[in-house]
Amino acid sequence: xxxxxxxxxxxxxxxxxxxxxxxxxxxxxxxxxxxxxxxxxxxxxxxxxxxxxxxxxxxxxxxxxxxxxxxxxxxxxxxxxxxxxxxxxxxxxxxxxxxxxxxxxxxxxxxxxxxxxxxxxxxxxxxxxxxxxxxxxxxxxxxxxxxxxxxxxxxxxxxxxxxxxxxxxxxxxxxxxxxxxxxxxxxxxxxxxxxxxxxxxxxxxxxxxxxxxxxxxxxxxxxxxxxxxxxxxxxx
Amino acid sequence: xxxxxxxxxxxxxxxxxxxxxxxxxxxxxxxxxxxxxxxxxxxxxxxxxxxxxxxxxxxxxxxxxxxxxxxxxxxxxxxxxxxxxxxxxxxxxxxxxxxxxxxxxxxxxxxxxxxxxxxxxxxxxxxxxxxxxxxxxxxxxxxxxxxxxxxxxxxxxxxxxxxxxxxxxxxxxxxxxxxxxxxxxxxxxxxxxxxxxxxxxxxxxxxxxxxxxxxxxxxxxxxxxxxxxxxxxxxx
Amino acid sequence: xxxxxxxxxxxxxxxxxxxxxxxxxxxxxxxxxxxxxxxxxxxxxxxxxxxxxxxxxxxxxxxxxxxxxxxxxxxxxxxxxxxxxxxxxxxxxxxxxxxxxxxxxxxxxxxxxxxxxxxxxxxxxxxxxxxxxxxxxxxxxxxxxxxxxxxxxxxxxxxxxxxxxxxxxxxxxxxxxxxxxxxxxxxxxxxxxxxxxxxxxxxxxxxxxxxxxxxxxxxxxxxxxxxxxxxxxxxx
Amino acid sequence: xxxxxxxxxxxxxxxxxxxxxxxxxxxxxxxxxxxxxxxxxxxxxxxxxxxxxxxxxxxxxxxxxxxxxxxxxxxxxxxxxxxxxxxxxxxxxxxxxxxxxxxxxxxxxxxxxxxxxxxxxxxxxxxxxxxxxxxxxxxxxxxxxxxxxxxxxxxxxxxxxxxxxxxxxxxxxxxxxxxxxxxxxxxxxxxxxxxxxxxxxxxxxxxxxxxxxxxxxxxxxxxxxxxxxxxxxxxx
Lengths: 236, 236, 236, 236
Prior knowledge:
- Four copies of one chain form a homotetramer.
- Chain A has nine helices and seven strands; from the N terminus they run H-E-H-E-H-E-H-E-H-E-H-E-H-H-E-H.
- By secondary structure, the first copy, chain A, is an alpha/beta fold.
- Chain A has a seven-stranded parallel beta sheet with strand order 1-2-3-4-5-6-7.
- In chain A, helix 1 (6-19) runs parallel beside helix 2 (43-56), helix 1 (6-19) runs parallel beside helix 9 (215-231) and helix 4 (90-97) crosses helix 5.
- Chain A has helices at residues 6-19, 43-56, 70-76, 90-97, 113-124, 153-160, 169-173, 176-189, 215-231; strands at residues 24-25, 60-63, 79-82, 103-106, 131-135, 165-167, 193-194.
- The longest helix of chain A has 17 residues, at 215-231.
- Chain A is 42% helix and 10% strand.
- The interface between A and B is large, with 40 and 40 residues.
């Protein structure tokens, strides 16, 4: 989720690289509900990300929250993320639509599938066709889980568009012990990629520690995901 | 979904039996939003169900909607269903709690996971421990799908209780072309059983035709479900 | 909400009668999420209700939960209530549709306005035209309030049907200190009647004590409701 | 809603000024779900707004969507609006927190009351204490109305904070014929101000025509709002 310090970044990056991850995500600028929560390391975080890439060879992705930050962010990363809270920040969508980098667009907490597709259209219409759609949980009346990961969106999005569909079970269900089940379900439903949070010491995490996988849980999950992918006739 | 006539019942029962189904569900008494919709065949339907069982050897299950119907229904079927709309019909829950037959309890459209467990408790507390919990979609703001099948409930229910968890992707997503994806996802998430609607001529169905699988789609799904079950180390 | 004992019933009935109430509601059979919560006094409660009517002259209303209870309930009360959890208990709707008594039908927690109208249709289609519709809060993602009282339903129902519209702000918002504001808003929105819970010692209540008004708060509310009713050109 | 052309702006501004409005809102930059919908007049719209103020004496407010637009917008208007889709655009919140102008913060479609208060905190924590909170409807399962105007938020916000509470019934219910009922209800619930859309020819409107009040409906509403305000002991 958030980049916190050099040790955390490098340990985690090496773990996920060794387990077969294809991308490394780290938040430099963090959108937090409260202004008094940890807000991210900023440019310092971007530099850590770039070093992690140099060390592991894994391409890196980070969230953009402000049109004015885009120039600096583009210098350090391989892909951009638009977070759920900014899914209908249309100025930002247009701006990343003019970038050369791939954009992962996360579904807003109360965005319909159609809203998500229309927001993707803002990016596409500016000429950036490299857009990935990410299901990460919607808001419902259920309070047991943090959000309701809406896997129904996976087959629907696959049918409605050619864009790749990523699923983020970590934010979706928000409970570490159930992240793996939802990741496997996402793959069975047809997702093209899974994005999960991993933390070497989640109990010390500055945000969302209770939902991040431990490194060994992540390795185990990668193995299981591959089996389900094969069972539904795919490779991830 | 609903039992309609002899041909439909027998054709469908034979198809699902041949494909490896473990149970045959048919609605004799149907809860319909409008009083002017088809309300089911009643006792005539129960008799058809019993004949289908005799012919195929498949145990049968049907929905109970009224405490006064329980005696007659118990004579014809092997298991009882409590529908989503009656999940908090506490008189009915207590009554089936005094039955010897297994009860499949469907989650209400706006019932939390905790509400579902408390409703199960009504049945258990009367002495009937043979209860199956069924996730069948909740109501959210999303309108593309009929309901939002909440697969998050599967690992949560498996962790919170020892009761078997069934998933009904047909009502959950409500779109025939996506039922299979959601069934596979349900199995990967840990469901113990899948319940789907099958109709030999869905375009003629008196209710919910647009979401029922065709017989050949059902056979294909059974094969795929088995592969995913194996991939997650289970048999169904 | 629930009838608890003689003192509570008579004190409350006299208070609300003196303040200008038109009806006295008391639950004899209580639908409770958990089977281990207080379930109501049953027939004993019905007798208390009838005595309260004799003493105060106020007509009384109580909830029916089971088709088998209707005969006995009809002997003691002036009107029937169908609770939110039974709004789509179609057997029960048909049965009260054959009664001579007025029926107050409460909107289900996740029932659309159209669902509510269709459920009313079940009662009307059996010949009982004396149906009142009651908005009592729906389930949304908001957790600050117990439910989300949906006052939008008031003008919509008034436009869609000739049936009287009642609002229950007590269950709707679920917080005593805000019940009055929502009651006034309901009247301004066009509601024909307001139903609130009153308890002489809410801290001792066996259910929902935290949301019941104290007798003096109720008296004060009646005065304020009348002023708002006048301001929108109505009498209640 | 959106500023469209000179005639529309001046006619509407004069009408609402004559009816006793305290503020005139017009969208120069418009957040639209689709990139192919009308996006607003931009700076041209700001100039029209400023002219409308000169002509009528009414202070004007407009929406800010991008941190980079703030400087130019501040030159033309008296107050800033943060729209529902940007309620958690934290960069934008911080930026308007450094402005000298009042900020009206609209509740996001799936924002809890607590989320709204935390977003206000982003503005307050930068030193701008002149924040108004606006309830404008949340997303629920109900489809009859455009959104579910959540009037429960009014008494809750009044109790939780000293900030003024504005209600926008136009977007909230989204149906012209019911806007007035919800406006009256909002005042009865304790709202400090009502914001409605008015259009002299709604059938020609470039956005949201079906929900804008006609000028004569607006005048009538102002009179009725005053009566309800008096009935609850307030002036607006």
